[in-house]
Every structure is written in C-alpha cells, then in structure tokens.
Write a structure and sequence with these properties.
With 170 residues, this protein is mainly α. 65% of the residues lie in helices and 0% in strands. The radius of gyration is 17 Å and the shape is globular. The model has no long low-confidence stretch (mean pLDDT 79).
Length: 170
C-alpha cells in the first residue's frame, strides 16, 4: 500500500484496498481503512477522496449495513466531498434491503432540495447522481410495499431538458 517514493499510502492504493475489502465481505476493515485515512495525524495515509468513501459505502451496502451507509454518506458532506452515483445508489439499496425505505426517501428529499437550491450551478453529474438516488429509492419503497415517491420537480425538469423520459432512469 505504500507509495514508491515515500512512506505514505497513496490514495489509489487506499481505494484499491477498500474496494477489495468490499468484494471480500470485510466491510468493517473497509470502514477502518477509510477512518484511518480521514483522521491519521502522522500522514502515513493519503487523504480519502470521493472514491474512498464510495468504495466503503459499497462495502457496507453489500453487507447490508444500511446504518453505516448513511453515516458514511453524511461523512462525505462533512469532508466537503460530493457523493457520486455509487454512494447514492448503494445507500438507497442498503436502506431498501434493510426495510428502511423512509431513510432512503428522507435522503432523496434532502438531496433534491439541495440540488433545486443551486439548479443554475449544478452539474449534469449531480443531477445524474440524484436521478440514480431517486431510482434506488423507488426500488427501496417497492421492496417494502411502501408508496413510491413522486419524482422531485428539479429532476423532472432536468430529465425534460435532456429530452429523456424519467423512466429511462428506473
């Protein structure tokens, strides 16, 4: 895991290790690696990035750890990193499988409101990520026989500008 020219673990190596932990079912180790990178004062770890968090969230989702998915998604915000498609979808899927469709719906509402507030400056990646979150939230609700949420207006507007049907994302 060490970078060739120093005693610091590279971000790429950290991300690979976290992803490997997720594939092998070692979600606790993935979270530990992420936490170590995020707070290590000796700088033996590189800084965690968006991929680090998304990989750890995916590891937790595979293990059905919806609480950790939500916690790590909040940590992305605290670390001033943007959640990506993987982070949103993994969290919503974990919540759905864990019977926590309300948590997935709450997160969707939060993110849709945030995107609507900055719609003029938001990127296509942000809108795509939120669309993925909406799609996964629909799954979470359906898996738990809960009412399916309406698409947030900001997403309907975005999909219309892209001349795509909202159903393309479900």
């Amino acid at each position: 895991l060490m970078a060739a020219d120093s005693d610091v673990v590279s971000t790429q190596a950290l991300n690979s290790a976290i992803a490997a932990c997720g594939r092998s079912g070692r979600w606790e180790l993935a979270v530990w690696l992420l936490a170590s990178a995020s707070r290590d004062g000796s700088r033996s770890f590189a800084s965690a990035d968006q991929v680090s968090f998304s990989s750890a969230i995916s590891a937790c989702e595979r293990a059905g750890q919806w609480q950790w998915c939500l916690k790590l998604l909040r940590s992305l915000d605290e670390n001033r990193l943007d959640a990506d498609l993987t982070a949103y979808q993994s969290t919503a899927w974990a919540c759905g499988r864990g019977g926590q469709w309300k948590e997935a719906l709450d997160r969707l509402t939060l993110e849709a409101d945030a995107l609507a507030a900055r719609v003029s400056t938001s990127s296509e990646d942000e809108a795509s990520g939120l669309m993925a979150l909406w799609s996964a939230t629909v799954f979470a609700c359906q898996a738990n026989s809960a009412p399916v949420p309406s698409i947030p207006p900001v997403l309907a507007s975005w999909a219309g500008r892209k001349e795509r049907s909202v159903l393309d994302y479900v």
